[in-house]
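hey team, just a heads up i'm posting the complex here instead of the shared drive bc the drive is being weird again. everything in one block, sequence lines first with there labels, then the predicted structure for the whole assembly after. its two chains so it's a bit long, scroll down
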Amino acid sequence: MSEDSIQLYQKRVQIHPRSVKGRFRNLKTGIMVLAYTVYFLLPWLRWERPDAPDQAVLYDLPGRHFYIFGLTVQVQDIFWLAGVLIIFAILLFFVTGLAGRVWCGYFCFQTLWTDLFIMIEHWVQGERPARMRLDRKPWNREKLIKKGTTYGLWLLVAFWTGLTFTMYWVDAPTLVVDMLLGRASYAAYFTTFFLTVTTFVMAGLAREQVCIYMCPYARFQSAMFDHDTLIISYDARKGEGSKGRAKAYRGQRTPEERKVKGFGECIDCGHCVLACPMGIDIRNGLQYQCISCALCIDACEHDLVNYTSENALNGRKTQFLRPKTVGYGVILAAATTLLIWSVLTRAPYTGTVEQIRQPLYTQLSDGGIRNAYEVKLNNKLTAPMTVGIYIEGLPGATLDMDGMERIELAPQERIKLLARVQIPPVESSKVVGDKVMFVIESLDGATAKPIRQEVPFYAPAGS
Amino acid sequence: MSDNKLNAAQQSGAVQTTGHAWDGDLQEYNNPLPRWWLWCFYGTVVFSVLYWFIYPSWPVGQTWLKGFGKVDYTIIDKKTNKVEEREERWNTRALLLADLGEAANSEQRKAMLAKVRVASYDQIVKDPKMMEFVRSVGKGLFGDNCAACHGRGGQGVVGMYPNLTDDDWLWGGSMDKIHETLVRGRQGFMPAFEAVLKPEQLDDVAEYVLALSGEAKPSPASERGKEIFQGQTGGCYYCHGADAKGVSSQGAANLTDKIWTIADVPAQKTLEDKKAVLKTFIANGVNNTRTMPAWKGRLNDDDIKLLAVYVHQLGGAR
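-- predicted structure starts here --
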């Protein structure tokens, strides 16, 4: 493409990053192994539960329960999910403000899977020059075999990725058998197919295009940067000297020789550019395409690319303790504490009482007054429990629940009961708009404080 | 050096322009879209055309493009309980019906209904799950069929429709009696005494009836009323009983309790007002205004059973 010609639509140029060795490569590989171990093996972990699925982590959507080891999340606990999302959002703000696009560079699944797919490509087709040569070749036997093997392996990984994702939503061993026998649900096939296709396309074909053109996170993380945020940057002062970078030709090889000639330490070997999975030249400064993967740091043998901050580049000190980082840190700690507290102090059962307001009260033949209530009980345990219900605080009042004042709840059972509270005629005149306290206590199967709820009791004025 | 030429413009530090110039110096930047993006966009355009034919869309003359899809679902006739298989062209209403028929909740509901169908009233009342089901389904049935007269909560209207939440039942409040009322309907009746009793006798009877439930103190007038009530002059005891506690086979009201179904006595402040409102009904009787229609033939047996239990748990004779 010449600089003059105008292209309104851009043809993509395949990027073949060169593999590197080093600290950050090891760190990234370590994170990758850990993430894949957790992701691919977690659905196979079993967890004994009486009267509930035995999969350690299972998001049972039809059953309206999330099972996470010893924790069972019920529908009404779903606000925990909001808590988790808030924590992740704040964590992203906190980390990005402090150390740049750490999420993009090390943890994002796009980065992880692309990394794996490039590793496979490297393993089958060889290093960058070999891959580029292969791309230029006509479609011969060698190219067919090599490309075919690469695509086949990608597809295998993509399929297993999709299948593993599906395993989190249904019993894993059953799903695998059902999938093979063609009797799994439509949703299971579709989810697996969809994830297989997206993994293949995003990690195999689209790669850096996802980060540059599709991902909103990639763009809005830039808004969290300030002068103290750690960025990956080329040390231009050191690298360029007074006359710029220059190849290490004879006579300008040693630092002393280069100093005399005015050249910087950068020998323009281009390793940082070759290693970049985003296809950018880090020496041009901070760019929105940079995912902070740090591979150019490993690639540079002259230590010219490093984690630094804009302040540090300008000779000032990098401030880590800033109102922004401290603020996000405090919010993060508070949200995490709240969530953990909420999970740890969750009640084994819930009970709520609601007055039935139509009619507000009923006049009985002996002159007594009756109010009706709906009692909702929910056993959150995966074991049976017995609950007792009684009232207090309203003189002379009696509770009638057709013998269901004491009720056994099956594991995870939810039930609505009718409760009638009645006062004899004598008390009637005293209780216009009074209140009655319902006490719901666990009699057997769970230890928790009784639930006490005060609800209104209505009677006609002057009766 | 780099393969990547996407950012050539940025690498050279200048953003390319399209080359157009207006007013001499007004130019536009060229930030080209990736080609794959463009192809995806064309793809969606092509797909949108396919979509018109796959799903119902454009009107064509008197008809419209109906799409390829079909929806199968079953419908249960409410009166006959007959299951009917239907097939319709794809539409969301049919999808909803199919979902209602096959969803897990619907299966649970069917299983529960089958259980309630064979269970006795005693068994249903003692079973929390069955009662929860009855309350949930019964609420809808009651709202559809009964609430127009008896009110959303079964509270009724004094003078018009009985309150179903109290413990005073004109025709009997046991589950079987409620069932019978639903199946056969009821016709409430009380003759007019305007021609039979003189005005002062009406006064006396009214005073006696009020004294029965403590609304008035016993007096010479109420003693005179008692004679009329218990004797052949009024003959009230034929229907209301010698103890005035009503006879449920006649639908005759219990006059000794605190509940008034026709004359709104508790709403009146003075004794004279109470007597006045009561006398209106004794004089004119109760005629053609107290009709409960028969529901057999309008509702199926399951629904009548569910309603009987539902109404009983509203108030019932407890």
